[in-house]
């Protein structure tokens, strides 16, 4: 039997702040309804910036314009039924536009909401992962890296 190949999952997340409140999604997960930043997986052929713009729009209906990288995070979750899973998360902050009323949200998203850091800090049991609050705390602490901090090297088609 061939051993399972281990691969990390690459995800992106967006921090959008307006008047001291943060754009969040309430979503269905295996553990029930949870709060998260707009976030999702990097898809084949995408850059990280393309992924965070797409995921924010798909999950909230809000267009997103990344302004800075807040941080890169690694989280490993053990699972009793099989191998654990590791996520590499790239969290960006930026401006969110007004939602497109014609857009439909991803099926797992129940609703979008705006919460203050204090409101979010008061309900850690509702967070999708501990990274939800960690990313907000890093953002509030002023952590910012330029968008070109992560370089994307694209290889053209083979000839």
TrEMBL record:
SUPFAM superfamilies: Nudix (SSF55811). Its EC number is 3.6.1.-. The lineage of its organism: Bacteria, Pseudomonadati, Pseudomonadota, Betaproteobacteria, Burkholderiales. Belongs to the Nudix hydrolase family. NudJ subfamily. It comes from the Bacteria. Pfam families: NUDIX. CDD domains: NUDIX_Hydrolase. Residues 7-137 form the Nudix hydrolase domain. Monomer. The gene is nudJ. GO terms for molecular function: nucleoside diphosphate phosphatase activity; ribonucleoside triphosphate phosphatase activity; thiamine diphosphate phosphatase activity. Its cofactor is Mg(2+). Keywords: Hydrolase, Magnesium. This is Phosphatase NudJ.
């Amino acid at each position: 039997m061939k051993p399972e190949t281990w691969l990390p999952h690459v995800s992106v997340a967006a921090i959008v702040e307006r008047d001291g409140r943060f754009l969040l999604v309430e979503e269905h997960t295996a553990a029930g309804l949870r709060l998260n930043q707009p976030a999702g997986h990097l898809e084949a052929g995408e850059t990280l910036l393309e992924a965070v713009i797409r995921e924010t729009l798909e999950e909230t209906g809000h267009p997103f314009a990344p302004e800075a990288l807040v941080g890169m995070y690694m989280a490993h979750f053990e699972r009793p039924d099989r191998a654990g899973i590791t996520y590499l998360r790239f969290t960006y902050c930026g401006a969110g536009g007004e939602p497109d009323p014609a857009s439909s949200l991803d099926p797992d998203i129940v609703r979008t909401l705006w919460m203050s850091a204090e409101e979010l800090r008061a309900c850690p049991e509702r967070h999708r992962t501990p990274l939800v609050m960690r990313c907000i705390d890093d953002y509030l602490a002023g952590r910012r890296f330029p968008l070109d901090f992560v370089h994307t090297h694209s290889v053209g088609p083979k000839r």
